[in-house]
Amino acid sequence: MKIKFIILCLLSLFLSCNNQEKAQKENGVENKSPAHNSRNSVDWNGTYRGIVPCADCEGIKTEVVLHRDGTYEINQKYIGEQDSIFNETGKFEWNEAGSKITLLNEEDAKKRQFQVGENKLIMLDADGEQIKSELSKYYVLEKSSFDQEITEKYWKLIELDGKKIPTPENGRTEPHFILKANEDRVSGNGGCNVLMGNYKLEDNNKIKFSQMATTMMACQEVEYEHEFLRVFEEAELYNVKKDTLVLKTTDMAPLATFTAVYLY
Would you say the CATH fold of 154-261 matches that of 38-144? Predict the structure, then answer.
């Protein structure tokens, strides 16, 4: 009788644990302890990159940036098509289990969802489930950071003379520049006009721009372009940390701040 009682107790405990585990999986919880989830146990803020499948192109270069304040930014570029980079910003929210996030964008009726893991984001389908197909591995974005090199990177202007630069509207080109490593050439855009020139890097983070030139289109909507172009005349030092670049004068006064974009 005692043996039967022990067996019944063990069976009851097993079924209870099994049901609890099943319920957690249905709610998207990867860990049995509710206090241990992606939201509070993973260093989730940062930049995630990858190339996701595309129905009518070679793939979509995708960059998702998650900030600690609950905001996000997505940059996407369709490989093999136009050079435009599609940008979207907004807020995101966690599910109750702390394992998934939903991007909140009023213009997008279909809310995009991601499973948050250790150094990765997994794109989910419309129902918030992992995509099951032979291409499933391509829906994983890996967390990454840029090294201390500044060449061959698309540097987008985000702050000028201490003032934030808003994301351009109506498809207008964002202000940026790229340093070509093999030619010591600069290319980019001031927000209206194409810019080009030469540059030279020296020890102790010294930088010198020369022979800078631009096209001559008049764009009254881009009020900051003249000040942005002036940065290349005055910049003498640079500082790069992860995805952020700051151009400075010799007295360390910051002229402009840029963020690296993976998709150019």
Answer: yes
Whether 62 and 56 have beta carbons less than 8 Å apart is answered as no
Q: What global pTM score does this model have?
A: 0.56
Q: 154-261 belongs to which CATH class?
A: mainly beta
CA dihedral 17, 19, 20, 22 (to 10 degrees): 120
3-state secondary structure 129-182: CECCCCCHHHHEEEEECCCCCCCCCEEEEEEECCEECCCCCCCCCCCEEEEECC
CA 89 vs CA 11, 108, 116, 231: distances in Å: 51, 11, 18, 27
Closest residue by Cα to residue 64 from 53, 51, 55: 51
Report which residue type is found at 83.
Answer: D
User: Under a CB-based contact definition with an 8 Å cutoff, are residues 259 and 63 in contact?
Assistant: no
Confidence of residue 82 (pLDDT cuts 50, 70, 90): low
Range 137-145 average pLDDT: 87
Residue 185: partners with Cβ closer than 8 Å, 6 or more residues away: 179, 196, 197, 198, 199
Domain ranges of the chain: 38-144, 154-261
Q: 116 — phi, psi (to 5°)?
A: -100, 120
Q: Which CATH class is domain 38-144?
A: mainly beta
- Write out the H or E segment, with its range, that includes residue 72: strand 71-78
pLDDT band per the 50, 70, 90 thresholds, residue 183:
confident
Length of the chain: 264
Quick check: helix, strand or coil at residue 46? strand
DSSP designation for 143: E
